Every structure is written in C-alpha cells, then in structure tokens.
Amino acid sequence: MDSPKCFDRSLPQTLQIATILLYMNAILTILFSPGSPLLLLPAAAEAVGAFGIANAKRWGYIMAVAGAAFPLALLLIDAASFGVSFLSLIFSSPLTLIFEIALLALLLHPQSREHQKIWFH
Description:
mainly alpha, about 0% strand, 6 helices
C-alpha cells in the first residue's frame, strides 16, 4: 500500500496546477475569511479534494470540483442579488473572479476529466 502524499508529480499538468491552487485557495480562505462557516466549508472541501486528487481518489476530484464551484456560485449569486451587472463584478473583484474561474477550468479541462476517469479509483 502506498503512503499518502500531498502532491503527485505523475498527474497531468492541469491537475498538478489545480492541486496547488486548491491548497493555496484553502489556506488563503482560512487565513483571511471572517470565520463564516459558509466560507470555511468550501475551503475544507478544496483542501481535502486536493489531497484526494494527489492520492488518485475519485471522491477527491468530485470534492475539489464542488469546493471550487461553490465560491464561484456564491460570488455570482451575491452579484445577482444586489443587482450588480457581470461587468461591474469583473471590475470590483477581478482577481478573485479570475482565480475561481481558472481553478474550475483546470479541474473541468478534458485532460483532467479523462485522467480521473481512467486512473482514479
């Protein structure tokens, strides 16, 4: 039985970068969030999902996608509830929006999906 690892260099580049971004996003959210459980839950899902991806677990991939999609959905719902247009959302928090979209795009990239279908268990 292999020992658990935090990062797997044999993963495709898309999953390697996504794993690093998941860990970074989880750490930054935990450090700089106001302590709201609504924000800490996706951060925990991202960290656990990154660990699962590094250990080739399908549940890790699913948890990482859910953890990455939840903050993006919250950001878009928050903008819609205050009547903010998408264009003003881009200008108000462009780095957060780009980061969340990039993370989700890396996880849902065809190369990442194919790799997890074939190699994850």
